[in-house]
Amino acid sequence: MDGERRILDADVVVEQGRITTVRRRTGKGRRGKPGTRGAKPVELDCTGLVLLPGLVQAHIHLCQTLFRGLADDLALEDWLAKRIWPLEAAHTEASVYWSAMLGAAELLLGGTTAILDMETVRHTDAAFQALEAVGLRATAGKCLIDAEANPPGLREPTDRALREAADLCARWHGAAGGRLRYCFAPRFVPSCTGPLLRAVSDLAERAGAVIHTHAAETPVELELVKRATGHDEIAYLDSVGIAGRRAALAHCVWVDRDAIGRLARAGTNVVHCPSSNLKLGSGIAPIPEMLAAGCHVALGADGAPCNNRLDGFEEMRLAALIQKPRLGPEALPAARVLELATLGGARALGLESEIGSIEPGKRADLVAVDLSGPHAQPDGADLVSRLVYSARAADVRHVVVDGRIVVQDGRLKSADREEIRVEANAATRRLRRAVGL
Ligand SMILES: [Zn+2]
After folding, report:
1. Which residues surround ligand 1, an ion (CB under 5 A)?
2. Cβ(138)–Cβ(174) under 8 Å?
3. Which of 204, 277, 333, 399 is deepest in the core (most CB within 10 A)?
4. Cα dihedral across residues 266, 269, 275, 280: positive or negative
5. Element housing 417 (H / E)
6. In the predicted model, what is the mean pLDDT of residues 247-251?
7. What distance in angstroms lies between residue 184's CA and the mean position of ligand 1's atoms?
8. Residue in 312, 359, 357, 407 with CA at minimum distance from that of residue 55
9. What is the Cα–Cα distance from 164 to 292, expressed in whole angstroms?
10. Whether residue 251 has pLDDT greater than 70
């Protein structure tokens, strides 16, 4: 994914978490003894595998991973009011921690190395603690809800919400050697007052942090915003300072030519979540039209209850496929989709100079994929096509984040997968009891 999109037979050298050299392979790959970090160099043998920059998912809710399968086949408004709001309100420190661990384990094992993550209102420290331990690169933020007509279990006074967000930012923005960053995350316009949104814009600017929110997901939402503010939603977000390179808006399904023009002119990041948009029946975001207008686009799985996977390969495949009935088979080709899943995501996190491609100077976020399975053969076919249309999360063999081997031979090394399964299930049972589900 370098500037020329070269595909090389090469060795990649990593020192202190950064790629220092990408050199054409001269001899046979030597078999090393990977796995321990010490003074001696570690060699991870990727012979026969495809090494690609780690996938970046720019819209995830780790706090919802425990809700997987608990909110199927509902429209967004019911999905939120009947299931997601009550479950989020019932979260404890422990349940947020194990929800993040479960989601992060799935993401890493499936080749996603970086995320933009919206947590719930409380216990965001616990999510950061999980992310610190498990080794995923993450920009995460406490979700902000302060407007009337929102669930009392989640709504907070404006000042308190902003103060906690600023405190979290001070603690976590740049933590773990820069691997963890903070984002200011107003839930969506109907959840937030104008003063809160304007304050978020100022806070993010001062901290050099990303603003992450949902926008234009359903016609009901657009109508609510129009009634409350008198503006179209994207124009309103512009007016409160949530636009531009620092902003990442999930969904943008219901955007007209005017809104697309605004997003493109400002350089606002749009995060496309095809599985979520299909499952909640929200619609098909006009991504090819946005790209043609010059918009910046990234991909994301959204939360587990509206997907139900957190699989970057699935999102790539669907992003390409869902446009084709509408615009023809040439719409959104595989190579463009791979750009959205790597470089596009990097830009949405404000990290385009740090991740998203395999180039000297960038952080070592790398994924080795085994395409030898029958579903990805024959091997003479276009490599990008095999990655986008044929590959699956289960094909991921090794994953490196910030130079640390976190998955090796398909096994999670940075945490105990069985412990995560047991604890996540126990936490889910407690949450279900608490809300009577
Ligand atoms: Zn979402």
Report:
1. 302
2. no
3. 399
4. negative
5. helix 417-435
6. 98
7. 14
8. 312
9. 39
10. yes
- The CA-atom distances, in angstroms, between 328 and each of 296, 298, 323, 325, 333 are 22, 22, 7, 6, 11
Q: How far is the CA of 59 from the centre of ligand 1 (A)?
A: 6
- Cα of 358 from ligand 1 centre, angstroms: 29
* Cα 392 to middle of ligand 1, angstroms: 23
pLDDT, tens digit (0-9, with 9 covering 90-100), for 26-79 = 655 454 444 445 568 899 999 999 999 999 999 999 999 999 999 999 888 888
Position 11 pLDDT exceeds 60: yes
Residue 371 DSSP one-character state: -
Closest-CA residue to 59 (of 122, 99, 112): 112
Q: Is the CB of residue 241 less than 8 Å from the CB of residue 282? A: no
Buried b / exposed e along 244-270 (16+ C-beta atoms within 10 A): bebbbbbbbbbbeeebbebbbebebbb
CA torsion sign for 190, 192, 193, 195 is: negative
Find the 157 Cα to ligand 1 centroid distance in Å: 22
Tell the residue number behind the tokens 């009550």, with chain if given: 86
Between CA 57 and CA 247 the distance in angstroms is 15
**pLDDT one-digit tens code per residue, 105-158:** 999 999 999 999 999 999 999 999 999 999 999 999 999 999 998 899 999 999
Tokens of 231: 């503006």
